[in-house]
Amino acid sequence: MIKENNTLGIIRALRKDARMNMVDLAKATNLSRAVVFRRLKYIENNFVKKYTSLVDFSKTEYKVRAVIYISSNGKRLAAFLKKNPHINSAFSLSGRFDFMIEVFFRNLSDLASFEDRLHPYCTCTRTHFIVEEIKMEDACAA
Question: Does the predicted TM-score (pTM) go above 0.90?
Answer without folding.
Answer: no
